[in-house]
Structure formats: structure tokens, C-alpha cells
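Hi there, hope your week has been kind to you so far. Thanks so much in advance, here it is:
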Amino acid sequence: MNDLLGYARVSTADQDPALQHDALTAAGCFRVWTDTASGAKTQRPELDAVLDSLRFGDTLVVWRLDRLGRSLPHLIETVTALGERGIQFRSLTEGFDTTTAGGEFLFHIMAALAQMERRMIVERTRAGLAAARARGRVGGRPIALTSAKKRQALKMREDGVPVGEIAEVLGVGRSTLYRTLSARVITQSA
């Protein structure tokens, strides 16, 4: 038998999920799982529980799309994973329903738009980095030890100064200093 399972989410404990529960029950859901968590949170135990409970042929029903997905890409990823398991998806407010040809078509359009958005973000990021490089700007963390500080660290170490004290004097972490010293030893022995 194909079951309708509901999922509801409210952002804070002050909010009442009754509206969502009533709509999901009226739609025929025999059980509703409810999370009280921000949509941005990645850990939603009740969502995990309903996803584990769904079986081939079942339908996951939500009151609105934003109750399920943290973002459009996350929503599409979740609905795609459901489809791969033979599980349908329905959103009551938007009328989105993958059990119909029109709903499935709409889902594929949304997926294509999300993919295009991801590609555009990557392209804009690459273009921005290239423009910054052309102006002489390099990204990443600044170098902790300049050449002068490296020479000073090596001299201090040769004079027997403990690594912790050298790190404190130069204002760097011990691990940074160890990396610098071991790299210098390796290049000298090569």
C-alpha cells in the first residue's frame, strides 16, 4: 500500500505547527513528523526519521516547499534522492506534485534552473578571482614568516633557543615554526 507521510517544520518553539498538521492530515497523511529548527540547520532529526520511514511507492507531503529544503539546491537534491528510491513528493501550498506529469516536468525545470545558478556562481567567482589576480591581488592567508623571520628563526634555533620561545618572539604558532624548520632541513639535505 502506498502511504502519504507528512513532514512539518517550525523555526522556533514559539511557533505552532497546528496549521501544517491540519493541512497534512486533511491531505491524507497518516502520520506527520515535526521538527522545531531553523531551515538553515543541517541536523533535523524528524526529517531524517520520515526519510527513513518512506518506502517505495510512498509520497512525502509538506505544507510548503520551504519547510523541506534549506535552499533550492538542497530541495532539489532531496526530491531527486526520493525519486531515485521510487518515492513521490508533494507540496500542498504550491501544488507541486511529482505523481503527475506536470509536477515532474516542473521539478525538472527547477533542477535545471538550480544547476544553472550554481554554474553562474562558479563562473562569477572565477571571473572575480582572475580580475583580482590581474590587479596583483592574491587570495589566501598572508605568509606568517617572511624570509627575514625565517633566517632569524634558523639562527635562533642554531643558537639553541627552544622552539616555543622562538615562536613567541616571532609571533607565530609552534606548528608554523616546525613546518618552516623541517622544510629548511629537507631543502638543505636534498
